From TrEMBL:
It is a multi-pass membrane protein. Belongs to the 1-acyl-sn-glycerol-3-phosphate acyltransferase family. This is GPAT3 acyltransferase. It comes from Chordeiles acutipennis. One of its GO terms (cellular component) is endoplasmic reticulum membrane. Keywords: Acyltransferase, Endoplasmic reticulum, Lipid biosynthesis, Lipid metabolism, Membrane, Phospholipid biosynthesis, Phospholipid metabolism, Transferase, Transmembrane, Transmembrane helix. GO terms for biological process: phospholipid biosynthetic process; triglyceride biosynthetic process.
């Protein structure tokens, strides 16, 4: 459906958040590759919240939705920096994962954030044993 949408030049662009979740405003998590497989031009946008007047981040493990909403509506302001980056197109030799990582790197660099190689869903789920074992093997090779 996304391919059909972007092929029709009369339709407005689609806004997609490829992380699938938001975290604590310090890092950019792994992007889902689906948005980068359809072709077309990506117009990256870096958004970084300034928590001085009110923090937009919701730590769902600490606060209920009602507490979060109360904190948002009673905060002085929700301030964020928004940077519109130059359009990016998938290169000939690039697969969707490398393209997603290139876009992610541009966004992280602009926002002064670190890049994390794992999925944001990990904040709600346990890490797969195979992932832990892979990291342990890599560590053993270093040692």
């Amino acid at each position: 459906r996304i391919r059909e949408h972007i092929a029709d030049k009369t339709k407005l662009p689609i806004l997609i958040f490829p992380e699938g979740t938001c975290i604590n405003n310090t890092s950019v998590m792994m992007f889902k590759k689906g948005s980068f497989e359809v072709g077309g031009t990506i117009h990256p946008v870096a958004i970084k919240y300034d928590p001085r007047f009110g923090d937009a981040f919701w730590n769902s493990t600490k606060h209920s939705m009602m507490t979060y909403i109360f904190n948002i509506i009673t905060s002085w302001a929700i301030v964020c920096d928004v940077w519109y980056l130059p359009p990016m197109v998938k290169e000939e030799e690039e697969d969707s994962i490398h393209f997603a990582n290139r876009v992610k790197a541009a966004i992280a660099a602009q926002g002064g954030m670190s890049m994390l190689p794992w999925d944001g869903g990990l904040k709600r789920k346990k890490v797969k044993e195979s992932f832990k074992e892979e990291q342990q093997r890599k560590y053993c090779q270093i040692v």
